[in-house]
Amino acid sequence: MSEAAFKSGFVSIIGMPNAGKSTLYNALLGEKLAIVNSKAQTTRHRIFGIKNGPGHQIVFSDTPGILRQTSYGMHERMMKFVKESLDDSDVLVLLIDINGKDFSEEIQDKFERSKAKKIVVLNKIDKVHQQKLEEKLVWLKKTFIGDVYLAISAQEKFQIDVLEKYLIDFLPEHPAYYPEDQLTDKTERFFVNEIIRNNVLKLYDEEVPYSVEIVTLLFKEEPKIIRLSCEIIVERDSQKPIIIGKKGQSIKKLGIESRKELELFFQKQVYMELFVKVREDWRNNKKMLDQFGYESE
Hints:
By secondary structure, the chain is an alpha/beta fold. It has helices at residues 21-29, 73-88, 105-113, 130-143, 160-170, 188-203, 240-244, 249-266, 286-291; strands at 7-15, 47-53, 56-62, 91-97, 117-123, 148-151, 213-221, 225-234, 269-278. 35% of the residues lie in helices and 24% in strands. The termini are far apart.
């Protein structure tokens, strides 16, 4: 009896903001690679996470939430990541919040015309009663064209194993795309930036978190410690004192909370310096967007 062929492919999770994409991505991977926050636009980049199993390799892709309107050049770059995932994935997971509102017709059309295998997933079912769940499943099957329909709770990890089985079944026969010991396509600096940015989202209100970008200028790993020097980029002079806070208390708290998470992530002591820099209107500056990883064509 011949040995089963190895399977490998790209799986993209797409959906509207706050559908739970990053929570699902982390649950499927078994690692916290994507930042999770209740605020919209938490995910800005396309992040590959690699999971190996017996006879297969899944390359998961977490994508930004679908925006109906793009107010900045940064938003246009973020939507480019979503469209790329629709074009080059072997399996697409369309994630729908059971309490969510309207879906983007443009993305729905692209999803349904994709040649990839399609799984339509209803998320956050732990938040509703059985009757509403049954009604939503009927609506889901009438509204979206897919190969499989599934109801899950990413937060509670309910039905995640069932979803993963479908993903493996749908993978094409192909050699592994990445070495077995590689977990992601992103660098250590990227995850430093994301962890700090997630704490900015947690600790600051209104428009400020959405105007912030993080740049790691120094990442020096020693046997017992990692030394970091990071810039917090804001768009306006008026935002700088908000980040710093009265007598430096806000940036101090940001540093403490970020360092805790970084030490858990890297399993090593972290020493970190934070600085605030103003880069006027960076979200519309093509060179800065390229520099910050929002690659253009």
